[in-house]
């Protein structure tokens, strides 16, 4: 809802509230003798004056003095305004209705004093000031909250975009390293890898711009990537994966699992030892369980390929995109690095 629509709704609410306030005394007194005169005398004239005090504060005094911390000037301005309108209320009644506030009379103990009338009028004319402060403060708080949420949303979107721009080059560089390793040993495989990489990059460039993508597409992307990586390794590395055939598709954030998969290939393969990597995904209604089990071969500090930037980005994206809707656990058990990720879509 834009700013102009909010203004129209607030204006409509103001009109409706004042309409009800002005009509209620008339409806309650209908059918009685001299009803219109009584309503005009006791309700409509004071309500009209109340509305002026309310909007003087609402549009001018609260913003200029109260919100600017000039509280003394705010109090003085309202005292002057209330005094003026009490006098105006009394003058209108005296001129048009021949009503006079009684003077103090010591001989009449049962007649209300003039000071009581002034005191009650002062209380009544202070009510719209209090209401205007309440309404204006509430509107200001709502506006502040909306602006704060917009700022958080903009910050979130910029962070996610930044993480995505980090992820794509990171993925691309890893794939180029794979192709480089195949150029001399297996030129035909290198050609096939380049073709597979083009498909993967097409997905990265054209299908991951949306906030969420089809889980089927994401699974196909993962399978293509795993098959691409398998070309790089010898028979000493056992790579298995098990992904479900979806009957009903789900929507997920794009490129969320790829960091975990890259991490498994980085730290789960040894050039001299038997290696094993197992990927598994299960679906239960809107719950996705993804697990990876791989041998744990930690990288040395001098090996920059083990810097873990992809895994760090994945954790940040989970925190930003699935707050309170994900569980992530990672542990080394009997020489295997085991990762479990659960998402509620």
UniProtKB/TrEMBL annotation:
**Which domain of life, per UniProt?**
Bacteria
Question: Which SUPFAM superfamilies does the record match to this protein?
Answer: ATPase domain of HSP90 chaperone/DNA topoisomerase II/histidine kinase (SSF55874)
Per UniProt, which keywords does this protein have? Kinase, Membrane, Transferase, Transmembrane, Transmembrane helix
The residues that cross the membrane are: 7-28, 40-59, 71-88, 116-135
Q: Which InterPro entries match?
A: Bact_2-comp_sensor_kinase (IPR050640), HATPase_C_sf (IPR036890), Sig_transdc_His_kin_internal (IPR010559)
Mind telling me which Pfam families this protein's record contains? His_kinase (PF06580)
Q: What is this protein called?
A: Histidine kinase
Name the source organism.
Flavobacterium ginsenosidimutans
């Amino acid at each position: 809802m834009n700013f102009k629509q909010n203004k129209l709704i607030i204006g409509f609410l103001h009109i409706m509230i004042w309409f009800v306030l002005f009509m209620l005394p008339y409806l309650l007194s209908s059918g009685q003798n001299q009803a219109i005169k009584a309503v005009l005398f006791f309700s409509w004239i004071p309500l009209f004056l109340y509305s002026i005090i309310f909007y003087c504060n609402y549009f001018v005094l609260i913003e200029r003095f109260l919100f600017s911390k000039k509280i003394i000037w705010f109090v003085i301005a309202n005292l002057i305004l209330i005094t003026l309108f009490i006098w105006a209320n009394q003058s209108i009644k005296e001129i048009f209705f021949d009503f006079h506030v009684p003077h103090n009379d010591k001989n009449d103990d049962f007649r209300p004093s003039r000071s009581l009338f002034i005191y009650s009028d002062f209380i009544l004319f202070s009510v719209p000031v209090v209401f205007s402060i309440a309404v204006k403060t509430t509107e200001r708080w709502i506006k502040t909250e909306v602006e704060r949420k917009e700022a958080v949303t903009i910050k979130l979107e910029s962070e996610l975009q930044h993480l995505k721009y980090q992820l794509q080059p990171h993925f691309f560089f890893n794939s180029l390293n794979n192709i480089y390793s195949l150029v001399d040993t297996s030129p035909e495989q290198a050609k096939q890898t380049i073709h597979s990489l083009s498909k993967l990059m097409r997905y990265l460039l054209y299908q991951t711009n949306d906030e969420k993508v089809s889980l089927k597409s994401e699974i196909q992307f993962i399978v293509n990537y795993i098959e691409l990586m398998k070309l790089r390794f010898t028979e000493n590395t056992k790579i298995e994966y098990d992904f479900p055939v979806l009957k009903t598709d789900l929507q997920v954030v794009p490129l969320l699992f790829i960091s975990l998969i890259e991490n498994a290939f980085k730290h789960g393969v040894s050039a001299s030892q038997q290696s094993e990597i197992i990927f598994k995904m299960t679906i239960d209604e809107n719950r996705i369980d993804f697990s990876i089990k791989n041998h744990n071969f930690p990288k040395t500090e001098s090996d920059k390929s083990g810097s873990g930037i992809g895994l760090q980005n994945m954790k940040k994206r989970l925190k930003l995109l699935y707050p309170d809707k994900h569980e992530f656990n990672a542990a080394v058990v009997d020489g295997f690095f085991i990762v479990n990720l659960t998402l509620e879509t």
